[in-house]
Specification:
The protein has two helices and no strands. With about 80 residues, the chain is mainly α. It has one domain. The radius of gyration is 19 Å and the shape is rod-shaped.
């Protein structure tokens, strides 16, 4: 994995961390006893959207990292 890819994965993870922190705030807000049913539905919908966005970042990071793993493995295999 080259340094640019490593930096990209690190940045994706940092963004995911920030998004997770925001998602925690959404989940805490959804615990309020002052919400109406539509308010709970909105809170849950926001949380679902955040989780989907985080999953996309994780998938991209996985793809980049696995590409690096495959490149490393290909360099280590003896030629036939």
């Amino acid at each position: 994995m080259d340094e640019d890819d490593k930096e990209l994965v690190r940045r994706l993870m940092a963004k995911a961390t920030a998004m997770l922190e925001d998602a925690v705030e959404m989940a805490v807000a959804g615990q309020s006893d002052r919400l109406s049913a539509p308010g709970y539905a909105r809170a849950a919908g926001h949380l679902q959207a955040a989780v989907r966005d985080i999953a996309v970042l994780a998938e991209v990071a996985t793809i980049i990292a696995n590409t690096g793993v495959n490149q490393t493995q290909n360099r280590q295999k003896p030629a036939r």
